[in-house]
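Worked problem 6 (solution included).
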Amino acid sequence: MKKVLVIFTMLLLILMFSTPAIASNQSTYEDALLSLMWEDIRKAVVEYYDIKDVQSSNEKILDLEMKNALDFEITIQLDAFIGAHNTIGTDKLKFVREAPDGLKLVSYKHTPSKYKKEILERYFKNQS
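Solution. The predicted structure is:
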Protein backbone atom coordinates (compact mmCIF):
# COMPACT_ATOMS: atom_id res chain seq x y z
CA MET A 1 0.00 0.00 0.00
CA LYS A 2 2.84 2.34 0.86
CA LYS A 3 4.54 1.64 -2.51
CA VAL A 4 1.34 2.42 -4.39
CA LEU A 5 1.00 5.72 -2.55
CA VAL A 6 4.62 6.67 -3.27
CA ILE A 7 4.29 5.78 -6.97
CA PHE A 8 1.01 7.68 -7.24
CA THR A 9 2.57 10.74 -5.56
CA MET A 10 5.60 10.65 -7.87
CA LEU A 11 3.45 10.40 -10.98
CA LEU A 12 1.29 13.25 -9.79
CA LEU A 13 4.34 15.46 -9.18
CA ILE A 14 5.83 14.63 -12.58
CA LEU A 15 2.60 15.49 -14.36
CA MET A 16 2.10 18.70 -12.40
CA PHE A 17 5.56 20.13 -13.08
CA SER A 18 6.20 18.97 -16.63
CA THR A 19 5.80 21.46 -19.48
CA PRO A 20 5.20 20.63 -23.11
CA ALA A 21 8.41 20.95 -25.15
CA ILE A 22 6.66 22.24 -28.26
CA ALA A 23 5.20 25.29 -26.54
CA SER A 24 8.53 26.43 -25.15
CA ASN A 25 10.52 25.70 -28.32
CA GLN A 26 8.66 28.17 -30.51
CA SER A 27 9.19 30.94 -27.98
CA THR A 28 12.85 30.00 -27.71
CA TYR A 29 13.27 30.14 -31.49
CA GLU A 30 11.59 33.54 -31.66
CA ASP A 31 13.72 34.84 -28.80
CA ALA A 32 16.87 33.58 -30.52
CA LEU A 33 15.94 35.24 -33.82
CA LEU A 34 15.07 38.51 -32.10
CA SER A 35 18.35 38.48 -30.17
CA LEU A 36 20.27 37.98 -33.44
CA MET A 37 18.43 41.00 -34.85
CA TRP A 38 18.81 43.14 -31.72
CA GLU A 39 21.38 45.60 -33.11
CA ASP A 40 19.32 46.25 -36.24
CA ILE A 41 16.11 46.67 -34.22
CA ARG A 42 17.81 49.03 -31.75
CA LYS A 43 19.32 51.12 -34.55
CA ALA A 44 15.94 51.44 -36.31
CA VAL A 45 14.16 52.54 -33.11
CA VAL A 46 16.80 55.13 -32.17
CA GLU A 47 16.88 56.54 -35.71
CA TYR A 48 13.08 56.75 -35.90
CA TYR A 49 12.65 58.64 -32.62
CA ASP A 50 15.99 60.51 -32.69
CA ILE A 51 16.08 60.22 -28.89
CA LYS A 52 19.12 58.53 -27.36
CA ASP A 53 17.21 57.25 -24.30
CA VAL A 54 14.43 55.48 -26.19
CA GLN A 55 14.25 51.74 -25.56
CA SER A 56 12.00 48.89 -26.58
CA SER A 57 10.28 45.96 -24.91
CA ASN A 58 7.71 43.27 -25.65
CA GLU A 59 9.29 42.45 -29.00
CA LYS A 60 7.44 39.77 -30.90
CA ILE A 61 7.45 38.35 -34.39
CA LEU A 62 4.20 39.01 -36.24
CA ASP A 63 5.14 37.51 -39.59
CA LEU A 64 8.04 35.60 -41.11
CA GLU A 65 8.10 34.73 -44.79
CA MET A 66 10.98 32.79 -46.30
CA LYS A 67 11.80 33.89 -49.85
CA ASN A 68 14.39 31.16 -50.41
CA ALA A 69 17.02 29.33 -48.36
CA LEU A 70 18.77 32.54 -47.20
CA ASP A 71 16.36 35.42 -47.81
CA PHE A 72 13.29 36.34 -45.78
CA GLU A 73 10.90 39.12 -44.75
CA ILE A 74 10.10 39.55 -41.09
CA THR A 75 7.65 41.88 -39.33
CA ILE A 76 8.26 42.68 -35.67
CA GLN A 77 6.08 44.51 -33.17
CA LEU A 78 7.49 46.27 -30.12
CA ASP A 79 6.64 48.87 -27.50
CA ALA A 80 8.89 51.93 -27.47
CA PHE A 81 9.38 53.67 -24.14
CA ILE A 82 11.38 56.33 -22.36
CA GLY A 83 12.42 56.27 -18.72
CA ALA A 84 10.60 53.97 -16.33
CA HIS A 85 8.70 52.18 -19.09
CA ASN A 86 6.68 55.21 -20.14
CA THR A 87 5.35 53.77 -23.39
CA ILE A 88 5.28 56.28 -26.23
CA GLY A 89 3.97 53.91 -28.86
CA THR A 90 3.65 50.51 -30.42
CA ASP A 91 5.73 50.08 -33.54
CA LYS A 92 5.79 47.59 -36.41
CA LEU A 93 9.09 47.14 -38.19
CA LYS A 94 9.49 45.20 -41.40
CA PHE A 95 12.94 43.92 -42.33
CA VAL A 96 14.11 42.12 -45.45
CA ARG A 97 17.17 39.92 -45.50
CA GLU A 98 18.79 39.45 -48.87
CA ALA A 99 22.11 37.65 -49.06
CA PRO A 100 24.82 38.91 -48.99
CA ASP A 101 23.57 42.35 -47.88
CA GLY A 102 22.07 41.33 -44.55
CA LEU A 103 19.04 42.94 -42.91
CA LYS A 104 17.46 46.10 -44.30
CA LEU A 105 14.62 48.03 -42.70
CA VAL A 106 11.91 48.51 -45.34
CA SER A 107 9.08 49.99 -43.26
CA TYR A 108 8.48 51.47 -39.82
CA LYS A 109 4.90 52.09 -38.68
CA HIS A 110 4.30 53.94 -35.41
CA THR A 111 1.08 53.91 -33.41
CA PRO A 112 1.36 56.52 -30.63
CA SER A 113 0.31 55.75 -27.09
CA LYS A 114 -2.46 57.73 -25.43
CA TYR A 115 0.06 59.65 -23.29
CA LYS A 116 2.90 60.08 -25.81
CA LYS A 117 2.66 63.87 -25.92
CA GLU A 118 2.79 64.25 -22.13
CA ILE A 119 5.62 61.73 -21.77
CA LEU A 120 7.76 63.49 -24.38
CA GLU A 121 7.04 66.94 -22.91
CA ARG A 122 8.15 65.71 -19.48
CA TYR A 123 11.21 64.01 -20.96
CA PHE A 124 12.41 67.09 -22.86
CA LYS A 125 11.66 69.36 -19.89
CA ASN A 126 13.88 67.19 -17.68
CA GLN A 127 16.65 67.19 -20.31
CA SER A 128 17.06 70.98 -20.24
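Discussion: Helices lie at 2-17, 21-36, 38-49, 116-127.
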